[in-house]
């Protein structure tokens, strides 16, 4: 009797094993990728500070959809626009969440729309940000764009050291709309503070950098074995103190600001204490960090494409002349300048934020497991030869010939960048006015042949190289005089922000 029972149990076990193996054999494979070691996967192949470069190498080697395993974390890297749109746009409901980045979560102990998993809480905070950054709302920001870009033009009359002037512009613009005060000098404490916040949090959120993101069980180790915990606590203290101080100060001012308009919303008063300061602070940090990096890289792009720059300047001259500074409304009459801006955005991708799959999926004969970190590699997305003819050529006319060409600089699906309209208008105003005002050239002592244009993509994408030296020369005495006149009559912050008072914010209670 006992023998019969054991025989039945053994038969059941063998049936289970065969069933599992049969199921596995029928299961679709993961996308191609580098060979993996047991337990650690591909961790040994991904240097901590070269995540994006390594992913680019993998796409070059294995194709437009790549499987990478970092410890326990499955990554799916998307290396062209067609695939990224198929998954992240058309299957948005399966890919609209975010992966757990555990150091970032500890470093930012407040709501963060960019990293928050999809759900009711995310929708509430996202609605708060879109209320002041919708396509309709940003039409009212023209005056503050004009004020800050006028100062940028004036600053460059006296120096060729452009990165600090660009940082002042981007952080000053962001601080003015977030908290209702201008940063005219560039050495204000708030500017150094937002630089520190952005850089330290960017490291905390860097994919592939922290072992605990790849091996979540490490979070249970004691403190002396987890230095990332003290780093996260340090960053959280800086962020919390900085955001709360800026938010409290904004509420003491009479100026319009994101902080003030959200604080006055009755429906938001039930939110956890400090939530609004984090929502506004996230916009402040994102507007500064992404804008400053893109604009510094823009100068390099301008230096390497003098013929396209000259054509844009000719259109600016015929449309605007030298009686006034360009305005955003002028873009309606300048198809080539519009195209130049879109081509520049195509060439200046940010690293973006990974998506997370919320359920198992199949695509192109491959399986994408639930919980995968899905990483669109924006350099390849915007250099897709199936979408753009000769993608490695800087050709603004491609957008003249086909104004409907897609541009995915700001992301995909419901997780597209909240500030895309604000950022695009800011970027457009800076490009227009820089090209109108200045001839931007390499210094005579720089060997432009030493760094061939073929290396440009990696330098722009990583955003961590030393900026290229440049000389800014006013295009004429009339241009210089007009810049000086415009600077002398700059609007006060109250006047520059006054049009924004007509923005209507109505957030229904949904929490």
TrEMBL record:
Keywords: Heme, Iron, Metal-binding, Monooxygenase, Oxidoreductase, Signal. GO terms for molecular function: heme binding; iron ion binding; monooxygenase activity; oxidoreductase activity, acting on paired donors, with incorporation or reduction of molecular oxygen. Residues 1-22 form the signal peptide. Pfam families: p450. It comes from the Eukaryota. GO terms for biological process: small molecule biosynthetic process. Heme binds at residue 417. Gene3D superfamilies: Cytochrome P450 (1.10.630.10). The keyword Phosphoprotein does not apply. InterPro entries: Cyt_P450 (IPR001128), Cyt_P450_E_grp-I (IPR002401), Cyt_P450_sf (IPR036396), Cytochrome_P450_fung (IPR050364). Its cofactor is heme. Belongs to the cytochrome P450 family. This is Cytochrome P450 oxidoreductase, putative. It comes from Aspergillus clavatus (strain ATCC 1007 / CBS 513.65 / DSM 816 / NCTC 3887 / NRRL 1 / QM 1276 / 107). The lineage of its organism: Eukaryota, Fungi, Dikarya, Ascomycota, Pezizomycotina.
